[in-house]
Write a structure and sequence with these properties.
Elements (H helix, E strand, L loop, with lengths): L5 H19 L12 E2 L4 E2 L9 H11 L62 H11 L5 H8 L3 H11 L5 H12 L8 H6 L8 H11 L18 E2 L26 E2 L21 H9 L13 H6 L3 H12 L15
Antiparallel strand pairs: 1-2, 3-4
Helix pairs in contact: 2-5, 2-6, 3-6, 8-11, 9-11
């Protein structure tokens, strides 16, 4: 007996449900139940942790740009996450503090407060766990030594007292960094104005691209609104032709599909080149063409991609999709902090 894969059926149902919402100006919230929506960003308000404070976030902002957190004293979180690149670094893979290269592309930090898991393979269950792991592995940081050093800096000593009523500790630094990262948003795009009722916010080509995105091209099956990600893991064939492919999610969950990676959000996507977990697509058009072809063939390719390949998008339609994706660029004003000396 032929057993059908239920995911394509569910995916088509998602298109049916989401298309009228997109056209009516409503933006569905992720997860169960209705979430309060930030009227400026057009995004569901993130769930902030107990004890969240502006003082902690402001301290975390300084620490994010602080090279003294690294082993060499030359690398900071901002070395791989540039505000002008929507918190990516414009490199296929970035160097670590010790000069060795990472194996995966630096993902955007915009809207991570709304994500359920972290890293390309989802191995970190909390943002705090992600921060601590990246601090130690990427930057070679020794948290207790850094805490002792910052305690001797008057500006930091006062900032920690103001935020935590205590001096610097490893736990306080991780908490402050996570608080700051939760304030990084990408929303308020021309797309958001469009779905809010301003039909002049998108050009004719952008509107055509939007119709393709939720219709024929089926992008919305995995890039669901409002964050343009389903937070799931899919094998789209990237890097599977390597001699030793990156196993992706399977490193975390042995039952996961080989080579499956988290669906990236698409907000401000035009600012985050290069694309995919290995940074192998240099331009947004390159990335769209790969996906429009149904990904890259391999034994573990997600079956959701076959209908996309069968759609056989034309060059003109691909250009319209790219135009629409550029309309997802959000409002991301940012001023770098002054670091205590």
């Amino acid at each position: 007996m032929l057993v059908m894969n239920p995911r394509p059926i569910l995916a088509l149902a998602a298109i049916t449900l989401l298309f009228p919402l997109a056209c009516s100006g409503e933006t569905p919230a992720p997860g169960n139940g209705a979430a309060a929506v930030d009227p400026l960003l057009g995004l569901p308000k993130p769930e902030l942790p107990v004890g969240f404070s502006e003082a902690k976030a402001e301290l975390g902002k300084q620490l994010f740009f602080e090279p003294r957190l690294s082993a060499s004293g030359k690398t900071s979180c901002s070395s791989c996450h540039f505000p002008e690149q929507s918190w990516t670094d414009a490199r296929a893979v970035s160097p670590k503090d010790d000069g060795k290269s990472n194996t995966r592309n630096s993902p955007s930090l915009a809207n991570v407060a709304r994500q359920p898991h972290f890293y390309w393979d989802g191995r970190a269950k909390t943002l705090e766990a992600n921060v601590e792991a990246a601090w130690k592995a990427q930057m070679g940081g020794k948290p207790d030594e850094v805490a002792a050093a910052l305690a001797k800096v008057d500006g930091y000593a006062k900032a920690f007292q103001g935020a935590f009523n205590a001096g610097p500790t490893a736990a306080h630094m991780i908490e402050a960094l996570a608080h700051f990262i939760r304030t990084l948003h990408s929303g308020g795009s021309r797309y958001d104005r469009f779905v809010a009722g301003d039909k002049s916010a998108l050009s004719a080509d952008e509107q055509a691209g939007h119709a393709l995105f939720v219709g024929k091209a089926m992008c919305i099956v995995c890039h669901t609104t409002p964050l343009f990600t389903d937070h799931q893991f899919h094998n789209v064939g990237i890097g599977m032709d390597a001699a030793t492919p990156d196993v992706g999610r399977q490193k975390v969950d042995e039952k996961a599909v080989l080579g499956a990676f988290k669906t990236p959000g698409l907000r401000s996507v035009s600012r985050t080149a290069p694309y995919f977990h290995d940074g192998s697509a240099a331009t947004l058009e390159d990335a769209v063409r790969v996906m429009a072809q149904g990904g890259k063939a391999n034994a573990h390719l997600d079956p959701l991609l076959k209908p996309i390949a069968d759609a056989k998008l034309s060059d003109a339609e691909i250009a319209q999709l790219v135009a629409f994706l550029r309309a997802l660029d959000g409002v991301e004003p940012f001023t770098k902090p002054v670091l205590p000396q």
